[in-house]
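Example 3.2
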Amino acid sequence: MATAFKTVEPLEYYRRFLKENCRPDGRELGEFRATTVNIGSITTADGSALVKLGNTTVICGVKAELAAPAVDSANKGYIVPNVELPSLCSTRFRSGPPGEEAQAASQFIADVIENSQIIAKEDLCIANGKLAWVLYCDIICLDYDGNILDASVFALLAALKNVQLPSVTINEETGLSEVNLKQKNPLVIRKHPVATSFAIFDDTLLIVDPTAEEEDLATGTVTVVTDEDDRLCSVHKPGGSPLTGAKLQDCITRAITRHKEVKKLIDKVTKSIKPN
């Protein structure tokens, strides 16, 4: 009977749970799904991480290449993020060129990298105006069940902390670069941004870490990104219900608490991994 009611009136079905301050999956409104991270999952990448947020599963692989820096940024390298939502992760996505949601997610990740200063691009420069690192960060969703942004930011951060770059010098006589694969150094992670997403129900009620079903029924979503200094790095609000200043402040406060949980988890996993 409950299944039939959920099929016919999914929103009303949810509202009955929300009135009791819980959700159909048993979580409270402010409760996140079980979160796990596995670092160094892809041996062919320079750094990688697999993150599970409930059923939502995202893998990030970082590949480092050498290139000439841009003329107007002679002392900076590049970070190029790309989010893929292939048809294998959900029936809502189709094969072919990136869809609107994948493009929006890629832009969001690029904004987070820029605003949070997770890595100083100057650290990626090897020789001013001559040589710099390019970090291609491919984030691929393997199983989509909502809240792709939180999982993607987490996977990116964990993968970057796993990166080991070989030592590179430029031979003054030949002008060619010489790579020493035996001497590798980790990236300097300047900041640790963490995203926390909320779904807005009936224009007023906030629930954290929405599933795909909850995202579909919600009247809006908002994602808040903070760092370890409790600094606000980004607020992503793609349309939908407006938020009052008080509600937004509530989101930021919850996001700061969530940051501490995620940072603790990532530190624990990082310490358990010995660099190559």
